[in-house]
Amino acid sequence: MWGREAFLQLFLTAGLSPHPSGEPSFHLYLSPKSPPPRSQAASALFYRIRTVSHCRFFAQARNSQNHSLLEQKGLPEEFSKCSEGQPSKLLWSAREAPREIWGPASAQAMQGQGLCLRVATLLTGLLECLGFAGVLFGWASLVYVFKAEHYFDELCEPDAGATGNFTAQPDCKAQDERFSLIFTLGSFMNNFMTFPAGYIFDRFKTTVARLIAIFLYTSATLTIAFISADSAFLLFLAMPMLTVGGILFLITNLQVGNLFGKHRSTIITLYNGAFDSSSAVFLIIKLLYEQGISLKASFIFLSVFSAWHVGRTFLLMPRGHIPYPVPSNYSYGLCSGNDAREEEKKTAESEKLELQSKESLPAKEEALGPGKQQEPRSFWSYVLSQRFAWHLVWLSVIQLWHYLFIGTLNSLLTSLAKGDRALVSAYTNAFAITQFFGVLCAPWNGLLMDRLKQKYQKEAKSTGSSAMTVALRSAVPSLALTSLLCLGFALCASVPILPLQYVTFILQVISRSFLYGGNAAFLTLAFPAEHFGKLFGLVMALSAIVSLLQFPIFTFIKGPLQNDPLYVNVMLVLATVLTFVHPFMVYWECRRERKSPATA
Hints:
The chain has two domains: 108 residues, no CATH class; 443 residues, MFS general substrate transporter like domains (Growth Hormone, Chain: A), CATH 1.20.1250. Helix content is 66%, strand content 2%. Strands 1-2-3 form a three-stranded mixed beta sheet. One of its GO terms (cellular component) is membrane.
């Protein structure tokens, strides 16, 4: 392995020699005894080469068998420009160097080690998010079961307007408010506790974070399994524990995207889509309940899966973090042979390279001159940035819509269906089924970002745009599309027509899948990797404070507005329009950055 010391011991000869055209050419040779660079750090040191004179570049690297690894005809286009009498500016990032220099086959050999293990980690992580992480958001299905089990029935009051032999539906407004309060608390903890969860993940690494998640999740499922109508108040404890355990599962799994390079955003959004789709688990519990399987049996079954979570933690996940970019010789899991110190050393090295890649501005570096590169920014400088502030507004408003809709869906359907339980059950099932398709919707958002990023990277070679600008440009269409989907969902949800709710369900699941997948992907693209856990947790925690508005809004609709949400819906639709400012501001920032190199 080529470390820094080994790299400095290379036998390099460089000089000028005549060229038929009279132009100088630059020759660079490696010792035949020197193996090709195996680490990202060595590749980055050697291949960050910039030539600004008229030149012709030749490189020859030989392995221990004296076989040529690079020939003139295999050089990238940038080198051919030198022989055409054009100045060439070469700046290769650590991630590009192995593929460009050693060729696709060698790059695959370096980066494809342990492919089976990585695929196993990807698929089991997908199942974990799909089956456990975001089950809270199937709340409408579970409320149906709780009501059938007479949870909080004592809060229902007979209708004072009932006369004669006519038996009216009891007034269960207080019962609905109690269930809404439990969901509000659970969804608040789902977001607010993401910040300390992110800190735990950053500070204590993957294994500790996952063991905490398993403890909380198992405790919650066992609590729900053994409570009854008399002890229903324990739901105030169980649901927050369930959600915090689930969000820790998600956070520890998002890093799996780092293992797959250019598909990183796609996998992150896929996992977030699986998180959304896990709400269908409560639908399955509801359907099993209607077939005679008790609530207790279903949740005990979920508790048994703790053994699977533990096994995955030690066999298929790292003890520390999965770095990005991934070093060519990176290994993880029980059989990796790396101790925690060695693993963290590789992670720190990779994160340093990522920071350098994201914060480098090629044209501006040259203007600054040697030794005057920009200092790394602090965590709080990112938190106080305009970019982070508008992203928080974007997330908070759209999320409030979704939380309010999910938390009040049972009450909304009961009102629109005039109390018909069969109709309410049918629409509840339809809603839960659509939630399952979140895992299919979310990857399209990540795929859109990945494709645009690759396109803009090609353009950046000629424009001199920074890696950060390329990443931000690729996120703009995703942010705008998510806002547009939410606006359509909000308008449909505001119309009190029961059949129209099928369209609302479809737009809701697509919008929600794009929201959380886009949120995580944007944070990975727009901010340094070493701050991801804290920034992800902080933005979710701050948006959780906004989500607390759902309970007073629900109470306001049930009370002063007498179950007519028209005015509230109009205000929320106007707030949704405000979210379009975020993609516009990101676009404007990218446009300003793209103009700067030309004027520098």
